[in-house]
Amino acid sequence: MKLTTKGRYAVMALADIAKFESNNPVSLRDISLRQGISLLYLEQIFSMLKKNQIVQSVRGTNGGYKLAKNPEQIKISNIFSAVQENVKTVRCKKESKKGCNGKSAKCITHNLWDELEVHINDFFSKKNLSDLVKGKNENRF
What we know:
Helix content: 40-55%
Shape: elongated
Structural class: mainly alpha
Number of helices: 6
Number of strands: 2
CATH topology of the domain at 5-89 and 128-134: Arc Repressor Mutant, subunit A
Low-confidence stretches: none
């Protein structure tokens, strides 16, 4: 499975806003300093988040970004989707008759990885920003 920095940093930055917003916009510079993420990279990420109505921008000297919805309403899966992050455990397309290895049949472990992908995506669809900020970890073993 591959999850790029774009998806991870988008979640980190939005969790930062959820934690520090308190009705005032949060600057990307502040997020960059607190989270150790490149300011230029954050600008690219926030362009996608704004386009997908996850955040709103506020102009001016005290400007920055605010969440477009309450943290409870922003699912981690929505964030990944907004930054075009796909959580995949197999290289082939689900509807394809060909397998990941380029042969005519799917590999012997294909169903295992496909099932894992379903569980991972289900997990991300159940978690929201509020869970991260509150440190909600009720499903830990």
